[in-house]
């Protein structure tokens, strides 16, 4: 793999994480695992959202399996990620919503947003239950 990390922080693409968590490729999966052991990695929120989407839609991971995968990354000493945003995403996921909606709501608030607007009734209910402002748009 050339050089074994040497303190280099590497932004990881979703496909590497997918290979690691699914172990679905005889060559790429072990390579992904070796890579993640050898380097300090940075996992942007967009990568996590894409990872959750791929694991849920294509590999049929349920909410508990998704939480386990994300928690594993968050607890790894060699992984840098936005823990506060991830916590928000996981809370959404645990409440039956989409991980990405939790990330979006969190990042929006961090950027100064005062309310979350959506057509998604479930997302609106989760936010309202958490005491956050939400505008549920309707075409009715």
Give a written overview of the molecule.
The protein has 140 residues and is mainly alpha-helical. It has helices at residues 14-22, 28-38, 45-57, 63-75, 83-94, 99-110, 121-129; strands spanning 9-11, 40-42, 79-80, 116-118, 134-136. The N and C termini lie far apart (57 Å). The chain has a 3-stranded parallel β-sheet with strand order 1-2-3. A two-stranded parallel ribbon has the order 4-5. α7 (121-129) links the parallel β4 (116-118) and β5 (134-136). α4 (63-75) runs antiparallel to α5 (83-94). The model has no long low-confidence stretch (mean pLDDT 94). It has a domain at 9-81. The chain is 56% helix and 10% strand. The radius of gyration is 17 Å and the shape is elongated. Its EC number is 3.1.-.-. One of its GO terms (molecular function) is hydrolase activity.
Number of helices: 7
Derived structural class: mainly alpha
Strand order of the largest sheet: 1-2-3
Radius of gyration: 17 Å
**Shape field:** elongated
Which series of helices and strands comes N to C? EHHEHHEHHEHE
β-strand amount = 5-15%
Mean pLDDT: 94
Helical coverage, percent range: 55-70%
Distance between the first and last residues' Cα? 57 Å
Q: Which blocks of ≥5 consecutive residues have pLDDT under 50? A: none
Major pleated sheet: 3 strands, parallel
